[in-house]
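Student:
Attend to each token:
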Amino acid sequence: MTIEFFTPHGEVAEHIIGFIKEKLMGFYHRDNEIHGAEVVLKKKQISPGNDHICEITVSIYGEILMVHRSSDNYIQAARDVLEELSLKVDEFLQRQKEPPDQITSTVTV
């Protein structure tokens, strides 16, 4: 699994990056069809007190799942994103296991 991080230079502590990487690898262990993730940590004033943004995009079975949250610090924004992303990944994997509504075939028997 490829994980790319985009962060402001010198603003994000290594333990935060390690925490995010560990959680994303947990997703990969749930299903190895999760090919990659892109993590963007940035500072942008959206509303008072919520200027730290975490955005994570995950590629799974050719689909893209993306979650974006803001908070007053990077670790809380990352926790919020990872919690929501975990629910989305579980829901997506559950849908993948369901049989199709209708099976069509062009093969004549």
The CA atoms of residues 21 and 32 lie 15 Å apart. The domain at 2-97 is CATH 3.30.160.100 (Double Stranded RNA Binding Domain). The helical segments are 14-30, 74-97.
